[in-house]
């Protein structure tokens, strides 16, 4: 009986020589299948490649009829070859024709063969093709033979991926690996980006597959495993890491896998079969991916990510390939693709070249999403499995509003988006022309537009939009992207820089609004059942006033004798606002003791975002220098619908009558006390919603910078008075079943407003 006597090592050596020979692609492939057949003592060896149309095409054979090469095809799932490709699992049969999936192809002359062994050709867990051996005699292939075939398949996968067979592809067709892919995720931002993929965590590219000396490779693997295990232990015992519970858990699971015997054994076996240490890592990870990817269990999927990371770490140790290649050589229109990343990592890139970020994970409230948005980048999350499918340099289109990502888009898709972007670019140019025009309605109502901001890096955008200043500077963003608590001096520097960049335009600095959706990794927080309604924001600040004092001190120092506006978040009752004022007053005294200049004018404002405060406006308004509505939280609490959960948040229109009545109550109260009122929630930056706000008397709107143009355009074309009357009547008498939104859209239509 035949066995793999010459062994896979000999085969791999022969393959290496063949790959170095100056042969035409088809000749090389014919020689390769011949070598495999001889080495495996098989009568037949066939190699199928998965095409972009889902067909598996016979690319080469030894033993079947030569005419069937590039003629015979099987669909995914069809026949034994299709089954192997679809399931990404090897299949070994003593009597293939009796298998229910067997599909007879007369042109191949397959009749006399009974024994069958087929393995998937995998890369990053994706099937690229199928490799088959057959024998006339009924026989059972051993596990070592399956293993040898899988090892050989690793090399073929690399040949497919590196375009070695490109000349064999018929015109109009391509290999599946380069198929256009669409991912439907969650869009975090508006905007569309066209560009090239940059992998945040580039896969280490293995170039050397076949071992010269197996002993040496085993030794390299052992050393690399030790180094990697030590580095994980080191990270775990590192002081800073102790508080980062999530991170710690991840590292613990890395450690578990890194010490896993089964994993190390499989790596050693792959080397024994003739692969280099790095090729062995890739080979084993391929199988693991293929199996785990087909699981629907989220726990297993998470573990797959851990294993991917671990394999990549090991590859880095083996190849000495450092991280961050992508950071140095960003293409002009870079689209960053990552499983997940921290905001600080994002900021390490050259922002002038980054157009978008696509994540496999991440919700819209992930810090990196907030930062991406704030930097005016397009961001999409939940693009499942994109990291494995994308190659550096691939064309990619990211559609923020639709949450869709097109990897290697077809020319039709690309053309559609090129047109869309052209329109957007034109519109942007048009908005730029409006920059210096004040936002006044046709009937003379002056509306002041401000930016919502949170990073010093955002501030130069004021020059592009012509906004009056920053209506909300979310100071927590700088805390979220720092690796440790910014000290007094660092904060002073940061706020001074913001003031300098605003060049005389006012900035409303909001005190730290931590908790709920805004997590600061180094501030240890206890797990809460309902973090949005938990120990957060001002509650936390007043309970632990050290942080609050330092921040207020930093702001007062940064004012450097100029004006300063401070906004207090999450005020639930007037007492809390008073307490904050006491801290501010104490810090003012301290400032004057130290002989530093006092702010020329200090204004302290309250955010109205907790419903309870609506019934304490008579107490808080006389004490506040200004107020600002945080509709994101206010609407969430009014409707008991989590702002971060689109399923419920979208169910309640924030400008429906009950919410609009609440807002109107605030507008009327603020007017009665003569206190300036701003809207700084997301509502202000959406055209219909902004129209609703203006129709109830709001004249200061603060929004993300890209919204300024469209909102100003709408205001310039608007005659407010008739709409104001109509909305006022609806607020009093109801709107006869017509929603406020419909009513506003109808008015806008009649005025030919661009909305
Ligand atoms: C709000 O709640 O509307 C708001 C402006 O603040 P944030 O979104 O930062 O909670
Ligand atoms: Mg809020």
Structural commentary:
- By secondary structure, the protein is α/β, with parallel strands linked by helices.
- The protein has 4 domains: 7-178, Beta-Lactamase, CATH 3.30.450; 181-200 and 333-409, Glucose Oxidase, domain 1; 214-319, PtsI, HPr-binding domain (Enzyme I, Chain A, domain 2); 439-750, Alpha-Beta Barrel (TIM Barrel), CATH 3.20.20.60.
- The protein is built from 28 helices and 22 strands.
Question: In brief, what are we looking at here?
Answer:
The protein is α/β, with parallel strands linked by helices and 755 residues long. 45% of the residues lie in helices and 15% in strands.
The Cα radius of gyration reads: 32 Å
Q: Major sheet, described briefly?
A: 8 strands, mixed
CATH homologous superfamily heading of the largest domain: Phosphoenolpyruvate-binding domains
Summed over residues and divided by their number, the pLDDT gives a mean of: 89
In total, the number of domains comes to: 4
Question: Which overall shape is indicated by the principal axes computed on the Cα atoms?
Answer: elongated
Bound molecules: phosphoenolpyruvate, magnesium ion
List low-pLDDT spans. 1-5, 239-246
Share of residues in helices: 40-55%
Q: What is the CATH class designation of the largest domain?
A: Alpha Beta
């Amino acid at each position: 009986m035949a066995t793999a006597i010459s062994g896979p090592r000999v085969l791999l050596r022969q393959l290496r020589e063949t790959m170095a020979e100056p042969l035409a692609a088809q000749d090389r492939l014919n020689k390769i299948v011949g070598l495999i057949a001889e080495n495996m003592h098989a009568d037949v060896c066939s190699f199928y490649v998965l095409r972009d149309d889902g067909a598996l095409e016979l690319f080469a054979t030894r033993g079947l009829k030569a005419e069937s090469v590039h003629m015979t095809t099987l669909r995914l799932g069809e026949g034994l070859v299709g089954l192997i490709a679809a399931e990404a699992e090897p299949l070994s049969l003593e009597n293939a024709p009796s298998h229910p999936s067997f599909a007879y192809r007369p042109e191949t002359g397959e009749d006399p063969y009974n024994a069958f062994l087929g393995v998937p050709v995998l890369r990053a867990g994706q099937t690229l093709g199928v490799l088959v051996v057959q024998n006339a005699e009924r026989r059972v292939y051993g596990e070592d033979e399956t293993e040898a075939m899988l090892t050989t398949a690793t090399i073929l996968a690399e040949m497919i991926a590196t375009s070695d067979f490109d000349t064999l592809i018929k015109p109009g067709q391509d290999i599946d690996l380069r198929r256009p892919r669409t991912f439907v995720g969650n869009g975090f931002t508006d905007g569309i980006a066209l560009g090239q993929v940059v992998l945040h965590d580039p896969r280490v590219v293995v170039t050397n597959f076949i071992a010269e000396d197996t002993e040496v490779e085993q030794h390299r693997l052992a050393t690399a495993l030790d180094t990697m295990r030590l580095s994980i232990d080191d990270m775990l015992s590192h002081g800073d890491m102790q508080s980062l519970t999530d991170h710690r858990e991840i590292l613990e699971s890395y450690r578990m896998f890194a010490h896993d015997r089964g994993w190390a054994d499989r790596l050693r076996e792959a080397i024994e079969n003739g692969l280099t240490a790095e090729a062995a890592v890739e080979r084993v990870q391929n199988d693991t991916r293929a199996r785990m990817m087909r699981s629907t269990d989220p726990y297993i999927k998470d573990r797959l990510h851990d294993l991917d990371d671990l394999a990549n770490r090991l590859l880095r140790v083996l190849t000495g390939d450092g991280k961050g290649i992508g950071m140095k050589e960003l293409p002009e229109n870079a689209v960053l693709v990552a499983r997940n990343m921290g905001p600080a990592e994002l900021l390490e890139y050259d922002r002038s070249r980054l157009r978008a970020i696509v994540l496999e994970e991440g919700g819209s409230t992930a810090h990196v999403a907030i930062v991406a948005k704030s930097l005016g980048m397009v961001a999409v999350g939940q693009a499942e499995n994109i990291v494995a499918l994308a190659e550096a340099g691939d064309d990619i289109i990211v559609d923020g509003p639709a949450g869709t990502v097109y990897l290697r888009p077809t020319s039709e898709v690309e053309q559609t988006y090129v047109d869309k972007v052209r329109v957007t670019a034109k519109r942007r140019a048009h908005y730029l022309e409006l920059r210096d025009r004040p936002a006044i309605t046709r009937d003379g109502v002056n509306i002041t537009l401000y930016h919502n901001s949170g990073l010093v890096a955002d501030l130069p955008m004021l020059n592009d939009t012509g906004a009056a200043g920053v209506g909300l500077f979310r100071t927590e963003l700088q805390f979220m992207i720092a690796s440790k608590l910014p000290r007094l001096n660092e904060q002073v520097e940061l706020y001074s820089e913001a003031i300098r960049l605003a060049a005389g335009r006012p900035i409303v600095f909001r005190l730290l609004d931590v908790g709920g959706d805004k997590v600061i990794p180094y501030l240890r927080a206890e797990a809460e059942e309902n973090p949005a309604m938990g120990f957060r924001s001002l509650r936390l600040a007043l309970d632990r006033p050290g942080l609050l004092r330092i921040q207020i001190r930093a702001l007062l120092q940064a004012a450097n004798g100029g004006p300063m506006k401070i906004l207090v978040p999450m005020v639930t009752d007037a007492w809390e606002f008073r307490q904050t004022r006491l801290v501010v007053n104490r810090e003012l005294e301290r400032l004057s003791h130290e002989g530093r200049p006092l702010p020329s004018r200090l204004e302290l404002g309250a955010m109205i975002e907790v419903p309870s405060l609506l019934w304490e406006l008579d107490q808080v308004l006389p004490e506040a220098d200004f107020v600002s509505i945080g509709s994101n939280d206010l609407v969430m609490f009014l409707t008991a619908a989590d702002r971060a959960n689109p399923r419920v948040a979208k169910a309640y229109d924030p400008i429906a009558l009950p919410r609009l009545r609440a807002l109107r109550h605030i507008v009327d109260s603020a007017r009665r006390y003569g206190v300036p009122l701003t809207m700084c929630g997301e509502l202000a930056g959406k055209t219909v919603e902004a129209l609703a706000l203006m129709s109830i008397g709001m004249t200061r709107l603060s929004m993300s910078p890209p919204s300024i143009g469209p909102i100003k355009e709408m205001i310039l074309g608007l005659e407010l008075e008739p709409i104001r009357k109509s909305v006022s009547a609806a607020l009093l008498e109801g709107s006869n079943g017509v929603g406020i939104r419909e009513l506003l859209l109808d008015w806008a239509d009649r005025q030919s407003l661009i909305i």
